[in-house]
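input
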Amino acid sequence: MNRKMTLILSSLIIISIVVVLFFVFNRSAGGPVRNVDTGLTYDTIQAALDANETLDGHTISVRGGVYNESIALNKAIVLIGEDDNPTIIDGRRANYGINVNGKSVTIKGFTIRNCTNGINLKGSNNSLITENNISLTTNAILVYNSVNLTIHQNTVGNNNRAGILVTNSQNFTISNNMVFDNGLSVQLGYGINTNFSANGLIKRNIAYGNWYDGIGLLDSSNCTVIENTVENNRINGVLLSASSGSFVYYNNIINNSVQAVDFDLTNKWDDGVEGNYWSNYAGVDSNYDGIGDTAQATTGGNQDTKPLMGMFHSFTASTGHQVNIVSNSTVTDFAFFAANNTIRIYVANASVLQSFGFCRLAIPKALIATPYTVTIDDGSAPVLNLNDTLYDNSTHRWIYFAYAQSTHKIDIVGTPP
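output
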């Protein structure tokens, strides 16, 4: 009897230890969603957001994996998908992947798919949408009635209608996004568009292969569209409709069915010094400055009076200064060497038939000061048509030079600023 009781007690102790270890292990492992501020973990994103302990200003970190959720976000939360594995929100054909009604929200690092609207924001002032990948939706990113919102470095492609659409909003920034192949299935969609909005910056985006337009301003005003590449869009490249007071320059507008549409002469397609690169520009540059001698017209009667003879490139030096380069060559590399005040670029033929290349540089005087010396291939190749005083203002000096086309190393040496 004593032996039997001992065996039973031993078994109960072992079972108790196993149960305790099970709960301790699971508590320490926790769910895949964690409130960084409280340390609490959850099984779903929505549970983490809805928890009473989750307050405005908290950060929710989501482990990589697939989350079959449609999320409502009504607090001022930083919502981050971890980097090591894709963090996927699969909406399972719901209306929204993430529906935001809160202010001061950050959504970063998610793959969002299979829903009507990927990220939908209403009245979401001071918010940031960044580093997300959105596909297989009807509309990828929709913004309504928001102020001071930034949409940065997202990949938005293969959606049925809208890539990025901002409506009734002000003081917004759309930058460094890749927006492509939207609207192809329904022949209706578009890349980056603003409706009834003002004071926006659309900068350094790549918009290609979209159905209706690459970048469009509709009933919008006082926006700046700068340093974008708009390429191979099915109907319009850049469309300004019932929009006024906007600036469009330093863009590469390439092989769109209609390159640009603008009926309002209050919009400016150059900054008085440089305009845009147009793949269909038929003019010449007889004075060797990298600017076409005649204007490029848009459909609708406006014009770019300073069309670029080569594509626009922008590089950031190690000091943070931006160097702009217009060239009909392919610029394959850029470097800045502070020790000897040298900008170095490498160029190659843009096409097999090309025999002549040029570069036009806008150099910040705070990076290297004048005068500038240009050498090609350590002096073994001649510098042609050099103009080192092409244009000057209080902050920049513009220079121009040319070369027989090939692969070259080019050094521009200045003096300490």
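quick obs: Confidence is low (pLDDT under 50) at residues 17-28.
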